[in-house]
Amino acid sequence: MTVIYQTTITHIGQCAADALNDRMLITFREGAPADIVEFCFIHCHGELTGTLRPGTHFELGDRCYDVTAVGDVAEQNLRELGHITLRFDGQHEAEYPGTVHVAGPVPEGIAPGCMLKFVA
């Protein structure tokens, strides 16, 4: 297993945790526009060194999830903007082009300093 993306959450927008109620986690790199920061888990942007695809693993803190679907522009958005929308629903077809679906429960207790990784 090789880490293809790794970053650390540095800030959590006021409304970011609300998306978790809808089984979503939305990320954006530091320096995001102010109107977006409010809804995102902000992180210090890492470098994507591999391909996001079903079968990749997503790790958040000590939790591990299987990636089940990847939207057409999710990889590009992550690479260029540090932006990704994760859906914790295990769907096998991406609902939207920028969405990555994973199998497993919605994470709890996410705090600044939490590490986010994709492992292939």
TrEMBL record:
GO molecular function: kinase activity; protein-N(PI)-phosphohistidine-sugar phosphotransferase activity
Designated name of the protein: PTS glucitol/sorbitol transporter subunit IIA
Positions where Phosphohistidine occurs in the chain: 43
Coiled-coil residues: none
Pfam families: PTSIIA_gutA
Source superkingdom: Bacteria
A GO BP entry: phosphoenolpyruvate-dependent sugar phosphotransferase system
NCBIfam families: PRK10377.1
GO cellular component: cytoplasm
Organism: Superficieibacter electus
InterPro entries recorded: PTS_IIA_glucitol/sorbitol-sp (IPR004716), PTS_IIA_glucitol/sorbitol_sf (IPR036665)
SUPFAM superfamilies, sorted: PTSIIA/GutA-like
PROSITE patterns per UniProt: PTS_EIIA_TYPE_5
